[in-house]
Design goal:
alpha+beta; five-stranded antiparallel beta sheet; 17 strands
Amino acid sequence: GPSGCGKSTLLRMVAGLEEITAGIIRIGDRVVNDEEPKDRDIAMVFQDYALYPHMSVADNIGFGLKMRGLAKGEIDSRVAEAAHILQLDQLLARKPGELSGGQRQRVAMGRAIVRRPKVFLFDEPLSNLDARLRVEMRTQIKRLHGHLATTTIYVTHDQVEAMTLADRVVILKDGIIMQEGTPIAVYSDPNSQFVGEFIGSPRMNILRAKIDRSSALPVLQVGGSQIPVSGLGELDGTEVLVGVRPEHLHVCDAEQAKLFAVVDVSEPLGSDTMAICMMGEQELTARLDPEIPLSRGDTIHFTFDTDRLFLFDSKDGRRLK
């Protein structure tokens, strides 16, 4: 969810760092409401690496085990195992100051792994990394989860991280769960405008429209376009919000078009081109084949599968169709 929605607070409640006012927290079959954080058998990884600068990588990874009084042989064994999983074998003697941001985050993850907890808690662990490192570390984290198969709660504002990493996604807004499900289910079947816009990149187009039942088949009036749709129930003359994803828009001939728009800006990305178009005063973004020639001021005609069209209430954003 977005900033301030309660993600980190929820994580801290699971960890025992925030007091809960109602409800039950279970880890496995164990109710942990009254247990101290140190007794909950969890390990946290934060946005900030929080490494000891004067210690080697090996000592940083094993420090928590040393404080718990584990034997040196056991500590060394666990550190070596974690270093191998995270590809830190050649870096164990280095200090944090000699490492890249991605390597430091892997050390922080190693420190959590050696605990062998029941639950991992990740609090926006990739926020400090540049775009390339974020992609690399996403892959590392997914590979790590496949190797360890430990339950993980991962907090992020980045829907790409949520979509690529999660088995199940929980989307929060103002402390309330808006929707929960598999990434593909949430992407394909959002229950509100908020979820529809939040999940998916680039974000879903939201267009103001009006339902017109003056003809045999109801139509949506969107800008200067009229889109025939079925399954609108008793809605008539109602102003609604139409949601359509940029990747679901396809260029077509004028005779087949369901929408038309004028190119304002084109953004070539190599694999595809983002066309930012205008329908009157409303903006429409389309993800298009890079071979399609685009110039500012061109009129483009679009078609799409009406099953991929979403209707939302214009007042509260709830899903209508």
